[in-house]
Amino acid sequence: MAGRNRLLNRAYQWVFALWIPLLGWSVRRLPLGILYAMGGLIMRSFLFLNPRYNRAVRQNCSQLLGEAPDSVRVKDLVRRMAYNHGRYWIDFFYWSEMAGVSARPVPVQVVNGDALDRCVGAGRGIVALTAHMGNWEMGGLILRGRAGDMAVVYVPDRFAIIERYRSKYRRNAGIIEIPMTNDPLSALGALRVLRSGGVVAVQGDRDFNDSGIPVPFFGRMAWFPKGPAVLSLISRSPILPVFILRAEDGNGAGSGGFRVIVCDPVEPAGESGDEAAVERIVRQCVAIMECVIRAHPDQWYCFYPFWDDPSRSTGCERDEKS
Length: 322
Fold this sequence. Notes:
Layout lengths: L5 H22 L4 H18 L1 H15 L6 H26 L10 E4 L1 H10 L3 E5 L8 H5 L6 E5 L5 H13 L3 E4 L8 H8 L3 E5 L9 E5 L2 E5 L2 H9 L3 E8 L11 E5 L12 H21 L17 H9 L1
Parallel strand pairs: 1-9, 2-5, 2-8, 3-4, 3-5
Antiparallel strand pairs: 6-7, 8-9
Helix pairs in contact: 2-3, 2-4, 3-4, 9-10
């Protein structure tokens, strides 16, 4: 949410400095049902008070459903997405404050777990590809112990207080942090984990450094990072798409737990310097993400104009027509 307005950014800093400790205190004392209601209310209030983000979310949901931004289904999808994103934050704080051990009894259903076991058994390391959906931060707790070392490649949050909390949680969960920077040597940490047979988690739905590849996504061109494909080609480790989704609660708040969807691996074919090989893998991964997001659009969280980003729209349209 950080932007060019320094006063607004400072206001956000103050809000987070108050909100995060308060939320950490609340999750240790309040029932999950009340916490989920609070999270949903906060997210709906945020979208109401921030028309720019509300407009971006409605445009994105419009593209997902192929309907007008003011349609009933789009409005309902925006409402459900806001509620689920509020639950994401509650879950993140709740299980973090419970020190990880208490997260293990949470109901977890693993779909296609054999694919994960096969990749682990091969000993070649795993590039675990996910997206900004469901609760990706829970992956370390849920999948810990099923493979070797676990690392996460991440873009540091622009608000330091949020990143400090996430970092504390990851360390408590035994997850190795690999911040994504412009330094080419930053990839060495990921390669070390992969070559030891470990898992490196990456997100494949945001092109943070403007070096991605335009790929068709829900009927329009959008930009996606090529880093996961390059990492797979260099390490010769397969890309295993994994998505940690919230399941429906049938018997009280939090009773549904999590549904882990493991897709079939994408094998590295070609060389890292071969742009065609990189693009082929990116397209395979985007097709998988599109399939999962289509089935669970209310759990994909994107608060900026994904297809109409002003810095990218011209390039995308040009590539789409060429």
